């Protein structure tokens, strides 16, 4: 019988329990997927901790790759043996799972299962951010928080390849060098430097048209001070905790700023959007614009240790859970 990680009660990493599970046959529109690699993302922490409440018990995880084992009725375009990946449907921390066929993307031969599990959610998030939320152009200067994380390293590379000047905020000198090696022109070590002052200096006082912030509470308000008048604050994560409530008038006081809180799943809601985003990412990897950096690997049964490493900010790049 296959195993999975279950959460029976919201809380810390100790709530991640390795258990046998019954998977069953796929229903209409579903496939049974044997997974080979699973992506680790901060949204998994939000689900586990109860920040984003889930029915109990549940299997966390929203990204993975593997091989189709069985297809249910009314499934078109997929067959047993196909290599596929996904970003979205919860239930990923499992050796085998049922999943809606229309949320799967076929993996090309030049994209490995581990690459797919390490980049689909993060890479399509970057595609969303720099192509839809803020269409990035050559000559733009941007600030990326957590520039040495999974999303950050992909965004640094992709933005630089498009001709943008990339400023990246990181927590250590080691992460600064990693970000620099992945296209970040100006790493800022926020434990030593005032990132607002550095942005003002680097832009000769002009500040920025856009800030991409996945850190949340610790950086949100000061990130607003990095923006030009009518600049856009893109808050797409909350690794340090949720942003504290504030009066909308603050955006007016700081220069008639715009604020958005995008989530990938609203940008890949249709089959056409999903295919376009995935192909955009695959092409970026294929042409060398983006290299997927897998910084850590944990066995799926060690998911609790992986969560501890992620929450303590002791990870770089992407982290995957492997199926033994």
Automatic annotation (TrEMBL):
Give the Pfam families listed for this entry.
ADH_N, ADH_zinc_N
CDD domains recorded for this chain? QOR2
What highest taxon heads this organism's lineage? Bacteria
Which InterPro entries does the UniProt record give? ADH-like_C, ADH-like_N, ER, GroES-like_sf, NAD(P)-bd_dom_sf, QOR-like
What the entry lists under SUPFAM superfamilies is as follows: GroES-like, NAD(P)-binding Rossmann-fold domains
Sequence ranges assigned to domain Enoyl reductase (ER) in this UniProt record: 11-321
What keywords are annotated for this sequence in UniProt?
Answer: NADP, Oxidoreductase
Indicate what this protein is called per its UniProt record.
Quinone oxidoreductase
Species of the source: Sphingomonas caseinilyticus
